[in-house]
Write a structure and sequence with these properties.
about 120 residues; Nucleotidyltransferase, domain 5; 4-stranded mixed sheet; about 40% helix
Length: about 120
């Protein structure tokens, strides 16, 4: 594993100690790679992933030319918030997974807020 990724995982472990998702307010975990972005909603009290979505999914892959930029993460955030509303999830705890809050992570979070999610 590369040093940069090890440091991110270390930060994520430290952040995760302070966050705990419940059924009423689950934890939304974001993961980004060079070419894609994915997110999942986790209920830590039950130890279950309520749902997840990624730019690699067949339905979403058609909409993105390249999913590794800010514009696509913004579109992904809007789609994610729509799916979350359909599942009855509006309040979450945003877990940036050790990534800095800028660029694709920031645009994803802002588009979630625009879509009606609260955190």
């Amino acid at each position: 594993m590369r040093k940069k990724e090890e440091l991110r995982l270390k930060r994520h472990k430290r952040l995760k100690l302070k966050m705990f998702g419940t059924a009423e307010k689950p934890r939304l975990v974001v993961h980004r790679s060079l070419k894609n972005i994915s997110a999942q909603v986790v209920d830590d009290s039950a130890g279950k992933v309520l749902f997840s979505l990624s730019t690699k999914d067949k339905l979403l892959k058609q909409k993105f030319g390249s999913a590794g930029n800010i514009k696509s993460s913004e579109l992904f955030g809007e789609m994610f918030s729509q799916v979350a509303k359909e599942k009855g999830i509006s309040k979450v705890i945003f877990d940036r997974a050790g990534y800095l809050y800028h660029g694709r992570v920031k645009s994803f979070a802002e588009s979630l807020r625009k879509g009606g999610m609260e955190f």
